[in-house]
């Protein structure tokens, strides 16, 4: 669910009222709308929905009105996201017990696959350069990646890394944090441990995660592991080569 703060809503509501007056007196030539934003006139780009005629029905005017309102709201939301972008976030290697506690809290809030504090500590102590946290500008942990090197590597096979768990709090998603966490850990796997590839498991039903791994990061599905999760759901086993 998208939450719009009161400031953004007030701006939109004010603009919504102004648009009503604009639409009543819109320019028919070329269908270009001029609207007053603050103390400056801003020309909106031509939208396909705008007719190139001198008269229009009430329904058409409402379509114009709705289109411009949505465009304005999208613009304001984009600005709002930019103002709280990852420039104010910090990606840090796990270095404190507080980091581990924050990771566990984030995990419990977001995922059904949970771990004991001993398991987090095991990762941090054994592979201290592979797990990272994302902190907001107040130092709160809003995301993490828990990763390791695979210990049971068959003889003759190159070492590879594995992502045990990754999560970002809902209110901090769509800011690129998950990608940054993944890339940071992957780079450490390759540079420090000479990992040839990284592996992970993901629920077949988790479309958002699949989009990140496959479409954004370039992972490929290597296998389907039946009833991998405790509730019986299958998992995709995915790999990404770390060789340059």
From TrEMBL:
**Domain called N-acetyltransferase: residue spans:** 89-243
Q: Which terms in the Gene Ontology molecular function aspect does this entry carry?
A: protein N-terminal-serine acetyltransferase activity; protein-N-terminal-glutamate acetyltransferase activity
Per UniProt, the keywords (alphabetical) are: Acyltransferase, Transferase
Q: Which PROSITE patterns match?
A: GNAT
What the entry lists under CDD domains is as follows: NAT_SF
User: Which InterPro entries does the protein's record reference?
Assistant: AB_hydrolase_fold (IPR029058), Acyl_CoA_acyltransferase (IPR016181), Ard1-like (IPR045047), GNAT_dom (IPR000182)
| GO CC terms, sorted | NatA complex
Record keywords: Transferase included? yes
Q: Which family does it belong to?
A: Belongs to the acetyltransferase family. ARD1 subfamily.
Question: Which PANTHER family does this one have?
Answer: N-TERMINAL ACETYLTRANSFERASE, N-TERMINAL AMINO-ACID N(ALPHA)-ACETYLTRANSFERASE NATA
Q: What is this protein called?
A: Acyl-CoA N-acyltransferase
Upper lineage is: Eukaryota, Fungi, Dikarya, Basidiomycota, Agaricomycotina
């Amino acid at each position: 669910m998208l939450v719009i703060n009161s400031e953004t809503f007030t701006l939109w509501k004010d603009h919504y009222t102004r648009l009503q007056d604009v639409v009543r007196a819109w320019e028919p030539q070329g269908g270009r709308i001029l609207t007053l934003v603050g103390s400056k006139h801003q020309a909106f780009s031509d939208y396909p929905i705008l007719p190139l005629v001198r008269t229009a029905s009430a329904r058409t005017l409402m379509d114009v009105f709705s289109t411009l309102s949505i465009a304005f709201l999208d613009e304001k939301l984009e600005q709002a996201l930019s103002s709280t972008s990852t420039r104010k976030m910090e990606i840090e290697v796990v270095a404190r017990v507080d980091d581990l506690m924050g990771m566990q809290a984030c995990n419990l809030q977001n995922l059904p696959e949970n771990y004991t504090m001993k398991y987090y500590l095991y990762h941090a102590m054994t592979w201290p350069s592979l797990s990272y946290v994302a902190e907001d500008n107040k130092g709160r942990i809003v995301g993490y990646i828990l990763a390791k090197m695979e210990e049971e590597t068959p003889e003759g096979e190159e070492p590879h890394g594995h992502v045990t768990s990754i999560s970002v709090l809902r209110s901090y998603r769509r800011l690129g944090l998950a990608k940054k966490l993944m890339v940071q850990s992957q780079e450490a796997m390759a540079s420090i441990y000479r990992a040839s590839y990284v592996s992970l498991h993901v629920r077949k039903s988790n479309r958002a995660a699949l989009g990140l791994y496959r479409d954004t990061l370039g992972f490929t599905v290597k296998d389907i592991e039946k009833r991998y999760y405790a509730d019986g759901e299958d998992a995709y086993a995915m790999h990404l080569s770390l060789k340059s």
